[in-house]
Specification:
Helices cover 38% and strands 11% of the residues. With 605 residues, the protein is of the alpha/beta class. The protein folds into three domains: 45-58 and 138-322, Alpha-Beta Barrel (TIM Barrel); 59-130; 374-588, Glycoside hydrolase family 3 C-terminal domain (Rossmann fold). Strands 11-16-15-14-12-13 form a six-stranded mixed sheet. It has a five-stranded parallel sheet with strand order 3-4-5-7-10. Helix 10 links the parallel strand 4 and strand 5 (218-224). The longest helix has 17 residues, at 114-130. It is globular. The termini are far apart. The structure holds alpha-D-glucopyranose. Alpha-D-glucopyranose binds next to loops.
């Protein structure tokens, strides 16, 4: 064993690995807690922090690192306190919001036991100390909106903006981008990723990765591979023809590795053709490293290393979350089930990235540059918005107009979807606020259509989340009814009807689109949604976004509809390479709305 070895740079890694004990190596290939790895202090190896996500820092995850430290400081164990997160939920969403902002209000905890109240006061203090100057992270529009910009350079700028905030929060590995292909529009996480088309996804991810890593933060391209549904995601066996795998589902990962130079990749929860992704030597070693030359580290999705030793043998370097029992790895080495040279390779791969990360190079806990982040978030929302319809000069809304606004969504916008891509940002501009800021509060009427109204803007929202797929592409019945009723009123009064869609992906429109004059998709538009929408509706900005995935006229027109989300633990990719518009062009030879590039719904009769 080398004495005096210390991690100084990449060249010191072989000596450091040689100096590590088997137990140190066994600990190092798994997290120490949910979103932090463990250090090896005697060798100068620091811990590092992986956290989501693609469109902004998920501060809740960092809270998971703060809580154990608060408990330790209070000499408590989580068990004594019940579950700290349940304790937090006792204070309600308002209380959690205050807690996340580091200013817990006494009224939030007066109903709690003295012990829990004291814990939350200490937690609030610790949060306040951990928040960078500038406060909570910015919520950028998620991946689908980035894809809709068709502007890789802008997406690269967004990657840079997210990475700058990652540094401010002490995050080293950004758990994104999500490049999974939109195989089926019902996928609960479709909002997170770029496109149904592998070429658009490939061209977009390259710049995003470069933007992130240009700031010294590792991008973590996920979920490798083909995590294209939420139903039974941990274990569903996706039966994918080799041609479809190679031509549709792998290209964006290959581009991220070979042209983006991504430092890390996340292995997915699902199986492909009978093999768990995190346990697949073919995916993690033969293709990723052997064919593509990937030289970074593979981290499992959280809990995806279903067989720890098989994962290490297959090429999964880091298992998350932690902590895990190092003895299992030690025993496997001693039993000859895991070669120590293989374990050394896993450790070396992680160290090879770690020496590039702020945890090692030095953290600059700079303040959040909110003006910059807000500008980038607004730019992505503006350039990602798609104008699907504009007839009879409905748009732009002219100066001096009296604008009626209907739909609760206008006041309660959806900035991003649910799950690990959730971002609690310090502000959120609603469509109503955006219109009032742009046209003046006197020009905007919410919830009514005054006699002197020039037009009516109807705002409806649909969201989705990690953990479950959408049940249908239909709007809520009450939203469809609101659109039809409002359109009827507008027709009688000879004023224009404008629909703004704050949606997570495709929605069926055939029941109402012919009744309205204009349709603007603002998507899940991030914290600057309202300013972006108002700029587009007023003509200050030109709607230049294009659909990154097909909006089928009906869900039944989707090529995967007969094979989604699968049954008995299997989902067969029966459509092969004919995903989205490829199917429509192949089968129908035509689609409508060619200007949208990727087809808006096909009039499949
Ligand atoms: C989740 C997601 C993954 C995320 C990870 C850590 O289960 O699948 O996208 O980065 O766990 O939150």
């Amino acid at each position: 064993m080398s004495k005096g070895a210390i991690l100084t740079d990449a060249s010191s890694i072989p000596e450091v690995v040689q100096a590590m004990t088997l137990e140190e190596k066994a600990r190092f290939v798994a997290g120490a807690r949910a979103f932090e790895t463990g250090p090896v202090d005697r060798l100068g190896i620091p811990a590092f922090v992986p956290a989501d996500g693609h469109n902004g820092i998920n501060f809740f995850q960092l809270l998971g690192n703060i809580i154990p430290k608060v408990l330790a400081k209070r000499g408590q164990s989580a068990g004594e306190l019940r579950d700290p997160f349940r304790t937090m939920s006792d204070v309600g969403m308002a209380g959690i919001g205050n807690l996340l902002a580091g200013n817990l209000d006494p009224s939030n905890i007066e109903s709690l036991s003295p012990e829990n109240a004291a814990f939350l006061r200490d937690l609030s203090q610790a949060v306040q100390e951990s928040l960078p100057e500038g406060g909570l992270p910015s919520c950028f529009p998620p991946g689908m909106v980035m894809g809709a910009t068709w502007n890789p350079e802008l997406v690269g700028e967004c990657g840079r903006a997210v990475a700058k905030e990652a540094k401010a929060f002490g995050v080293d590995v950004l758990l994104g981008p999500n490049v999974n292909i939109h195989r089926d529009p019902l996928c609960g996480r479709a909002f997170e990723s770029y496109s149904e088309d592998p070429y658009l996804a490939s061209q977009t991810v390259i710049d995003y990765v470069k933007g992130v890593q240009g700031e010294g933060i590792a991008a973590d391209v996920k979920h490798y591979a083909a995590n294209n549904q939420e139903y039974m995601r941990q274990g569903i066996d996706e039966v994918i023809p080799e041609r479809a795998l190679r031509e549709i589902y792998l290209p964006a990962f290959k581009a991220a590795v070979q042209e983006g130079g991504c430092w890390t990749v996340m292995s997915a929860y699902n199986k492909i053709n009978g093999e768990d992704c995190a346990l697949s030597k073919r995916l993690l070693t033969d293709i990723l490293r052997g064919e593509w030359g990937f030289a970074g580290f593979v981290v499992s999705d959280w809990g995806a290393a279903y067989d720890r030793i098989q994962a290490l043998n297959a090429g999964n370097d880091l298992e998350m979350p932690g902590p895990q029992n190092p003895q299992e790895v030690i025993d496997a080495v001693e039993r000859g089930e895991l070669g120590e040279t293989t374990l050394d390779e896993r450790v070396s791969n992680i160290l090879g990235v770690l020496v590039k990360l702020p945890a090692f190079t030095g953290r600059e806990r700079a303040a959040i540059d909110r003006a910059y982040s807000s500008q980038v978030a607004r730019r992505v929302a503006v350039e990602g918005a798609v104008l699907l319809k504009n007839e009879d000069g409905a748009l732009p809304i002219e100066e001096g107009s009296v604008i009626a606004v209907v739909g609760e969504n206008a006041k309660n916008p959806i900035a991003t979807g649910g799950g690990s891509a959730g971002v609690v940002s310090p502000y959120m501009v609603s469509l109503l606020e955006g219109l009032e800021a742009r046209f003046g509060a006197d020009a905007v009427r919410f919830g009514e259509i005054p006699a002197n109204a020039s037009c009516v803007v109807i705002s409806v929202g649909v969201t989705s989340s990690e953990g479950s797929d959408r049940a249908s592409l239909a709007l809520a019945d009450e939203d469809t009814a609101l659109i039809l009723e409002t359109a009827e009123t507008c027709r009688r009064r000879r004023i224009k009807t404008i629909v703004v869609l704050n949606v997570c992906g495709p929605v069926e429109m055939h029941g109402w689109i012919d009744e309205v004059d204009a349709v603007l998709i603002i998507w899940l538009g991030g914290m600057e949604l309202g300013h972006a929408a108002a700029a587009l509706l007023s003509g200050d900005e030109n709607p230049s976004g294009k659909l990154p995935l097909t909006f089928p006229r009906r869900y039944q027109d989707t090529p995967s509809c007969l094979n989604f989300p699968g049954e008995f633990g299997r989902v067969v990719y029966g459509e092969g390479i004919y995903v989205g518009y490829r199917y429509l062009l192949k089968i129908l030879g035509r689609t409508s709305f060619p200007r949208a590039r990727i087809r808006v719904f096909a009039n499949v009769t």
